[in-house]
Design brief:
Length: about 240
């Protein structure tokens, strides 16, 4: 559904605004209550262009400082909401397809610090500070990506879901005039005990001649797994 819906979702073309579809697959493996491994594969499809790209990455997450013994909400498999400090480090590789007109390869070391707070009505605020140490076709191009995210776990008798909105700014240290700002709104939905599906919309505002406005639809399929010892501890806590 993610890949075959791409052409349909970007059928409304615009000469002023780029239109893209971002399918992605995420796999999370929880080693213990503090450490998690995260892998991803993503792609980009553009309307009326031969340009496509894809990427994959592997990260390690570390969670610290629980702010409550019992986590708020009914969030699916991601039990990290009981921590207000979240550190991530990893590697991301992306490249264009061989037939692309302007091929490039990007290798990125990602470092990330997230601070989390609970607002009234059990709304979770995440202040993300991410640095991308990028090498693109042999050139070093670092950037800083601060993001504020608001999310709230919700559920009905038959459905568990999480609405999410965020604003993100891109600061390019070596390239003047390439900074950009994006707004996004989406929803994560529980599919099974180990799978959730996220769909979201992103709008990027133009910034002069260098940064074009952008509308994108994103789809992410997420798989959550636990180490056997973590599973056993989790099941024991549930027993009366």
């Amino acid at each position: 559904m993610i890949f075959f819906s791409a052409d349909y979702l970007i059928a409304q073309d615009s000469t002023a605004t780029k239109q893209e579809v971002w399918p992605e697959v995420n796999i999370y493996y929880k080693v213990n209550n503090k450490i998690r491994i995260y892998g991803l594969y993503s792609a980009t499809k553009l309307k009326n262009s031969s340009y496509t790209d894809g990427g994959y990455g592997i990260y390690v997450d570390y969670f610290a400082y629980p702010i409550m013994k019992k986590r708020i909400g009914n969030h699916l498999r991601d039990s990290t909401r009981g921590y207000y400090l979240w550190i991530r480090a990893g590697y991301l590789h992306s490249t264009t397809a061989p037939e692309a007109k302007d091929p490039y390869k990007e290798n990125t070391l990602v470092t990330e610090l997230n601070l989390r707070y609970y607002l009234p009505y059990h709304i979770l605020l995440t202040n993300r500070n991410r640095f991308d140490w990028r090498v693109i076709s042999g050139q070093f191009e670092p950037r800083y990506r601060p993001r504020l995210t608001f999310e709230k776990d919700m559920h009905t008798e038959y459905l568990s879901f999480t609405p999410i909105i965020y604003g993100e700014y891109y600061v390019y240290f070596n390239s003047k005039g390439f900074d950009r700002f994006r707004l996004s709104a989406g929803i994560q939905t529980k599919v099974t005990a180990h799978i959730e599906f996220e769909t979201y919309y992103v709008h990027q505002f133009d910034n002069g001649k260098n940064v074009q406005s952008l509308d994108a639809m994103g789809f992410s399929l997420k798989f959550y797994f636990r180490h056997q010892e973590v599973k056993e501890k989790f099941s024991k806590k549930k027993k009366p």
